[in-house]
Amino acid sequence: MFNFNRIKGDHLFRDIDEDIRDQVIKSIIEASTPRKSFFIMVAVASFICTAGLLMNSVALIIGAMLIAPMLSALLSISLGVVTRNFKLFYRSVLVVFKAILLLFIAAFGISMFFKTSQDFSYEFLLKTNFQLEIFVVALIVGFAASLSFVRKELSQYVTGTAIAVTLIPPVSVSAIALRMGYTEQFVSAIWIFFINLIGIIISSMLVFIVTKFHHSKRMVRKELAREEKFLDKMTRREKIKKWIREGLTLIKIFSKK
User: Fold this and answer.
1) Hey, is 62 helix, strand or coil?
2) I need a surface site. Which of 16, 138, 177, 230 has the fewest CB within 10 A?
3) Spatial distance between the Cα atoms of 191 and 131, rounded to a whole number of angstroms
4) How far apart are CA 107 and CA 85, in angstroms?
């Protein structure tokens, strides 16, 4: 029989100590480092999502959201703000900007090979009259995503959270709409994307504040320095080998799921 007393002492943030924060910081900074494998997976996700939209395949759209490695980059932005580390913030913003640009270019390119119908609408992705609802959902998604990072027992749900992060489809829709000359739909898709983006960043910042990540400024500086030093020491051949290994690892992880 379930005993409620067992969970009286349990708290979402009570046992997030310094060691756990250090582990989270390390994993976020490593995962958001601008490696080629990161951008390769972003491009692949864009291709799959755009093909799914043009082929009206929900399965492909969901699959694209599963493999897109955008989550860690967004969380690193929040981490940079909370720890007041401009270097991490700037690097993370730059990574996200490049990823968005790559998403858009890849989507625009793949759409050139499809015959798009003139009644292109995808209204289920462009419900601009539900802006508040979209923002609230984005807040919840950001909370769940960041919580999955700071609580080890919830780490298995990061992939499930990624399904709800509707960042990839709006970018793909905007690229298709621009190609077809549909300005209104292009603007709507971009607006929905930024609503989701801002909502996720804000809620993850709140989680990092509550779990006192602002006390781990030294660890953030240390991990950034270690990552940069490691990348600078690598030869061109070693970098290529590392990118290949990382790409194969990502493919294996997502193929199992």
Assistant:
1) helix
2) 230
3) 9
4) 33
| Distance of alpha carbon 40 from alpha carbon 9, whole angstroms | 44
Question: What does the CA dihedral 169, 171, 177, 182 come to, rounded to 10 degrees?
Answer: 120
The secondary structure of residue 234, as a DSSP letter, is S
**Burial of 251 from C-beta contacts in 10 A (0-12 / 13-18 / 19+):** middle
Contact 185, 81 (CB under 8 A): no
20 belongs to a structural domain? no
Structure tokens at 189: 């898709």
DSSP designation for 11: -
* Domain count for the chain: 1
Using CA atoms, how far apart are residues 23 and 45, in angstroms rounded to an integer? 28
Give how far the C-alpha of residue 127 lies from the chain's centroid of Cα atoms, to the nearest Å: 22
Tokens of 26: 């390390």
Q: How far apart are CA 201 and CA 18, in angstroms?
A: 22
Query: Three-class SS of residue 45?
Result: helix
The answer to whether residue 12 sits within a structural domain is: no
The answer to whether residue 23 is domain-embedded is: no
Overall pTM surpassing 0.85 (yes/no): no
- Domain membership of residue 43 (yes or no) is yes
User: pLDDT tens digits, residue range 3-32?
Assistant: 434 444 445 666 567 777 888 888 888 877
Whole-number Cα distances in Å, 91 to 29, 88, 243: 10, 5, 19
C-alpha–C-alpha distance, residues 68 and 154, integer Å? 19
Domain range for 129 is 32-117+124-256
